[in-house]
Amino acid sequence: MQIEVISPSKQLFSAEIEMAQFPGVNGSFQVLKNHAPIIALISAGNIRVRKNDGKEEDIAVKGGVVEVQNNKILVLAE
User: What is the CATH number for 67?
Assistant: First the structure.
């Protein structure tokens, strides 16, 4: 599954991943391969991703919107 995290000024992160965990406004939520399509607001915090090699990485955001569709995740972050 592909994730792309972009801010108004630049691309913050892009990779093939196994899992992404987001700081949702109503609590954290996780996205795995073949997740149903969703658009959700995220709050300030860290997006945690597990890359295909098993390594985990955190991406700090101040909030934004996440869209999941067809094993592609697009995050428009502040």
Answer: 2.60.15.10
